[in-house]
Structure prediction request, 427 residues.
Amino acid sequence: MSGKNYSIETKCVQSGWQPKSGEPRVLPIYQSTTYKYDSADDVGALFDLEKEGHMYSRISNPTVAGVEKKIAELEKGTGALLCSTGMAAILIGVLNITSAGQNIICMTSVYGGTVNLFAVTLKRLGVETRFITQSMTDEEVEALIDEDTRLIFGETLANPALDVFDIERYAAIAHSHGIPLFVDNTFPTPVNCNPVDFGADIVIHSTTKYMDGHASVLGGCLIDCGRFDWTNGKFPELTEPDESYHGVSYTERFGPGLAYITKARCQLMRDFGVPLTPMSAFLLNLGLESLHLRIERHCSNALAVARFLEAHPKVESVSYPGLPSDPRYKTALKYMPRGTCGVISFCVKGGRDAAVRFMDSLELAAIVVHVADARTCVLNPASTTHRQLTDAQLEAAGIPAGLIRFSVGIENVADIIADISSALDKA
Ligand SMILES: Cc1ncc(COP(=O)(O)O)c(C=O)c1O
Prediction:
């Protein structure tokens, strides 16, 4: 499989676990924390990173490795690290190259949990986040970048405002300052967008969303696209000897393509201990096998729902970059020609109260703190996922208090629209 230029559909089904003759056809669940060796030298070589293999499932596990391989191929990357959640992947991803006294640049519109991690928790650890909006000029963004800036971070499709991240523009800015562009590609998934094609260096996923797609397992993934030059003098943590790992230089020992992920695994996964479990990896892999089919249906259903909402007299505004009338449609077509995602944001006339009445009247769509599930679901971000944000932060992130985040599932679209229609009648 690897090395061949298969299409995304084939990779979803076939990449990752490649059984040899007589081995199980399906990715086996290696439900073992530990691995057995014939000699002390064998295991010593693993600790010295001289030999490939598994020593302890906090660091790596064969089931998890099979899925990491698949996701790396889906994102055209050189390596991937699966984590227990999307938040864990973001934490490890940023801290892998950022220390106290340094800073990062981030879009204000990203997921509320990410804003909180960056603005509050990383700040307490001495890492400053400088928030930007896409309406700022390049000069205004560049004025925030200094010698201590480590990366620029954005979401391909921001949750929940659905802003389309102009990846090429921010990749150019980042690269002109010798720093990488991090892109959280959770909403479009690699089926609809490969950020590396537009210059992204590190891609992150909350696999909890469409990749699993069945609301069964939490997970996150960090992927190195293998294009960034970590040896440009700005990243001594990757090029200089790591005292906590027998003085290894990650770029020298593993090459530029594997240095970042190897360090994240051997150092931060070792220290933070937030791995994906083998059982979760197995379930995630089942989800990935149908990702391409589900995403296609999520997108076609969402477009039909968005068109219905747009024409409805009780709906104040609809935000869906897949709608031709949406101001972000052209940019969305550039980055996601196959479609955007199944999530729509909209406001019902009458503000927060009408939004609550609408949600309470739905029968098929369930109120859940989740999106990107096969089952249609709905949420009011201001009172749930984003309630930690102040009104000013909500405003900056483009999330009015009455905004409804509607995650269109893969049921029959006529049933979904009938449910919305009858709930709007009652709103
Ligand atoms: C875009 C995005 N990134 C990251 C996360 C965090 O992922 P997790 O909930 O798996 O920790 C979420 C969660 O909703 C998200 O929507």
